[in-house]
Amino acid sequence: MGAVLMTASPSAAEDVVAVRQADMKAMAAAAKTMSGMFKDPASYKAAEFRWAADAIRDRSGVVLSGHFASEAASPQSKARPNILEERDRFDRIANDLRDYAVALAAAAEKNPGPMSAGMRMKPGEAMGGGPLGTHVRDEQELSAMPAEHAFHLMLQTCTTCHARFRME
Ligand code: HEC
Hints:
By secondary structure, this protein is mainly α. 65% of the residues lie in helices and 0% in strands. It has 7 helices and no strands. Helix 1 runs antiparallel to helix 2 and helix 5 runs antiparallel to helix 7. The longest helix has 38 residues. The N terminus is likely disordered.
């Protein structure tokens, strides 16, 4: 029994690291797809935008948190050990990421044709998440903001989490 656990656990730990790193890369690719469409609105395609938002939705929230449920004893991992000590904060950021992805998917649903002006940020529109940072305060506020704004706040959740929980 003990021997089985000892041989099984290192490879299981490496597997989870490989899975979560692959998920992170997939999210980065999805974010790049959306970013390209905001930079060149003529390239916007609702179905592709929606697909990218869903790709992030499906890899955030509890799915993301679940990949960091225990300290991975893998030298490949760049995750910092404070994730376990600061579980609540980590999970909250993972959930915020999901909330933004859901809002972006909804925006694609509402804009099946060209990218509408309503999806874009107005010139000079404040970008920050306010004193509470990027935390989603309420869903109504989120669905009322332009998709581009939600997109930038979403990218900030990536950065916020990496700054605190990922090694340089
Ligand atoms: C709740 C925390 C959290 C959020 C949110 C988050 N990440 Fe990460 N990310 C991590 C951690 C921790 C690692 C290091 C994982 C490891 O090496 O075990 C990582 C690693 C990565 C990597 C490197 C993967 C590799 O191959 O080593 C990329 C790329 C990445 N994240 C992109 C993103 C993008 C893009 C977003 C937002 C759409 C995002 N992440 C959101 C915590 C997060």
